Amino acid sequence: MKAIFSPGPSYSNVEVRKYAGWVHILDLYKEGLEELGYEVIVPYVDPGLIDERTTVSKILSYDVVAASQLPTDAELFLGPPGYSLAQIMRLKAGRTALPLMDIGFFPPQHLYEAQLKELQDRKPKLFLYVWNGADWWRDEQLKMEYEKFGQPYDLSPSWRWINRTALEMCDRVIACSPWVKGTHSKVVPEDKISIAHWGVDSEKFHPPEVEPEGFRVLFVGGDPIRKGLVYLLRATGGLEGVEIWIVGCTPLDGPPIQITNRVKIRQFGMVSHEEMVHIYQQCHVICLPTLEDGIALAIQEGMACGLVPVTSPETSEVFEHYVSGLKVDYRDVDQIKKYLEWLANDPGLRREMSRNARKLAETQTWKNTKEEFKDIIRRECG
User: Fold this and answer.
1) Alpha-carbon span 214 to 304, nearest angstrom
2) Taking Cα atoms as reference points, which of 262, 264, 360, 343 lies closest to residue 303?
3) CA torsion 204→209→215→217, rounded to 10°?
4) Superfamily of domain 216-363
5) Which of 33-47, 55-69, 86-100, 120-134: highest mean pLDDT?
6) pTM beyond 0.85
7) Which of 6, 108, 201, 290 has most Cβ atoms within 10 angstroms of its Cβ?
8) The architecture CATH gives domain 2-199+366-381
9) Residue percentage of the chain with pLDDT more than 90
């Protein structure tokens, strides 16, 4: 059995693999397919052929080149919607002719037609995985936000069309959470969407032996607008004795925001995934008031290290509100501030929620993620 696993150009990028924890999820998918007995084929696209000028040109240049090299006898295809449309169309169309190299000689017409029909009738199962809210939700949450800060909103009409068309053409959508499934159920029928929940390596990510001093709030995210950094900074502007550690991006500045913080801010920039354990272990709370997400992997990693999560509705699906974390409404600066004050002023409450977060993270394993993924493939492919 052959499975085409086409996760896009970033998957094999050495620098991306160094900093991005999500590549491990793709590794799990690949391992799961191999454990099910598939020969996994990952299309290779020369980086020189990828047009990096815009998001759409990047995905189309990858997708078209990848489509040109797909084996048409594969039983399964797996990829993300944005990078898969040309490949899906190629696999759905089947071959229109048999190359001579496939048969060694030019056969009689009836044999040729029989082999051609066999290839065309062999339809691979088409799977797409989605890790963020559907495009309509991204538009609703982010378009005005980016405009407010004078930043371009990179979700073009052609990107929306590519995503929607790929989702409509595939056989099964694999979402990372109930929230992500819910937003995509307005794009495709709900019964077409299955869930493989994300997990965390709770052996690698674990609490420190000694609780760190002070009160440190950690923010992890590469996009300060989408991840809601401005609302965290506004919420902590009047708090005393709070230190904010920022990983992945730098605070926004300039006239549109005008943030004046008395708290100490420490910026780390990009940190390798291996080094993140040390960062987590020196903080008490991870606050991510993200405006649009699926499951923020940093939340689960922080929980595994004993941090109390304070985050938005979709990422709060991985904990119980008021027990192992705190859910905040989008853009609600007052609520974020209130929760951080609670945790800063009540160490007993913070330690109890920290223990609960750790215990919960121990049950959210990568093994479960892989087994849920494999169960979906088994059900669909027989």
Assistant:
1) 20
2) 360
3) 0
4) Glycogen Phosphorylase B; (3.40.50.2000)
5) 33-47
6) yes
7) 290
8) 3-Layer(aba) Sandwich (3.40)
9) 66
